[in-house]
Design brief:
- The chain folds into two domains: 28-136, Immunoglobulin-like, CATH 2.60.40; 143-231, Immunoglobulin-like (Sandwich), CATH 2.60.40.10.
- It contains one helix and 16 strands.
- It has one helix at residues 2-23; strands at 28-35, 39-47, 52-59, 68-74, 79-86, 96-103, 110-115, 119-120, 133-136, 143-150, 154-160, 167-174, 183-189, 196-201, 211-218, 224-231.
- The strands form four sheets. A five-stranded antiparallel beta sheet has the order 7-6-3-4-9, with no helix packed on it. Strands 5-2-1-8 form a four-stranded antiparallel beta sheet, with no helix packed on it.
Length: 236
């Protein structure tokens, strides 16, 4: 009798797990077409609705972490759709390029890679009508470079093209988790914009985390930018 009860409990647990998985399909991306050194077209599948994703590209093996911001997309109704992302000058000539999608709303990030050679790579079975709004980021949008990381203590960054004469709050969180538990750690004034250097202190509660995420938010306008996830290890 005890064995029967145990079997019933195990079966119930399995059914619960399977029903949970089937109710929440995993995100995925497929490379549809590449024009070498120009652009890539991706099919995005099962992306959350009503979210904004910041799209980064980086060198092969980087997972797009600390990469170049190339676009942002608003998923609207979500689901499956296609979008085009232009390859930045800094990555032209690379054989393989990593691409990363960072959620504004705290959903889990997604990354992939593509071969930088002209061709079509997949058959589209999804909706190519694309209920999605995305924009190509022109030269002059804010850019960020990590100059130095002191593990568990601080991140020094250089920015350019920030809007002028705005006060910026700097936030940080665990970059490995899909959460929105940002901690405000510093701030600065962009004055005349152009190239600026600032240091982000790492709070004690995050000093042992392997990956950190940083966000800059304008006090006046709520305008914000993500410099991208940053590895919490000594650099350079």
């Amino acid at each position: 009798m005890k064995k029967r009860i145990a079997i019933v409990i195990v079966l119930a647990l399995c059914m619960s797990v399977f029903s949970t998985v089937s109710a929440s399909p995993l995100m995925d991306t497929s490379t549809m077409r590449v024009v070498q050194d120009e652009y890539v077209i991706y099919q995005l599948e099962n992306f959350p609705a009503n979210d904004t994703y910041f799209v980064y590209m980086g060198e092969n093996g980087s997972y797009g972490i600390g990469g170049i911001l190339v676009s942002k997309i608003a998923t609207n109704k979500g689901g499956t759709f296609q979008a085009k992302f232009f390859i930045p000058d800094e990555l032209k000539g690379e054989d393989i390029i990593a691409i990363r999608f960072e959620s504004k709303e705290g959903h889990a990030p997604w990354w992939n890679f593509f071969y930088n050679s002209t061709g079509s790579y997949a058959y589209s079975s999804g909706d190519s009508g694309s209920d999605v709004n995305y924009n190509v980021l022109k030269p002059g949008v804010p850019q960020f470079t990590v100059l130095e990381v002191v593990k568990g203590k601080s991140i020094t960054m250089r920015s350019k093209y920030l809007p002028r004469n705005q006060r910026w709050a700097v936030w940080i969180k665990n970059g490995a988790l899909a959460n929105i538990d940002w901690i405000e750690v510093s701030g600065f004034n962009s004055a005349e914009g152009d190239i600026q250097t600032f240091t982000v202190p790492i709070p004690d509660s995050l000093k042992f985390n392997e990956v950190l995420a940083v966000k800059l938010q304008s006090i006046q306008t709520d305008y914000f930018w993500f410099p991208g996830p940053i590895n919490n290890r000594d650099y350079p």
